[in-house]
Amino acid sequence: QVQVVESGGGLVQPGGSLRLSCAASGFTLDYYVIGWFRQAPGKEREGVSCIRSSNGRTYYADSVKGRFTISRDNAKNTVYLQMNSLKPEDTAVYYCAAVYRTRATSWWNPWEYEYWGQGTQVTVSS
User: Fold this and answer.
1) β-strand 18-25 against 46-52: which pairing, if any?
2) Residues 2-30: pLDDT tens digits?
3) Fewer CB within 10 A of the terminal residue: the chain, N end or C end?
4) What distances in angstroms separate CA 26 from CA 42, 66, 71, 95, 109, one per listed residue?
5) Which among 89, 57, 73 is positioned nearest to 19, based on CA atoms?
6) What string of H, E and C letters represents the secondary structure of the chain?
């Protein structure tokens, strides 16, 4: 069974850091694009970052570029999102999602992703 599970969320002060993990099972990471999305209360789900694990190609939303870093460990079938210099506006539920690489055309479009995790809460507040 194909599954992705997020972990690592929590409460952090502005300027702090968190690392989120997305553990994949039931498929080989090399064949999939893995995306991170987030959704705050009353707002639309937005793309944060993604990685094409087969070649390591990465993409970032302008709002997080320079602060967040996506990476993968293919041996562990896990994708990470390192979040530094966190701001209150980063507060949201963060989701990990996966789509087969040949069906991925627009990384920021959540409708292209087939498999979704349960979400992990990130709260940035003093």
Assistant:
1) unpaired
2) 899 999 999 999 999 999 999 999 988 88
3) N
4) 33, 32, 20, 18, 23
5) 73
6) CCEEEEECCEEECCCCCEEEEEEEECCCHHHEEEEEEEECCCCCCEEEEEEECCCCEEEECCCCCCCEEEEEECCCCEEEEEECCCCHHHCEEEEEEEEEHHHCCCCCCHHHCCEECCCEEEEECC
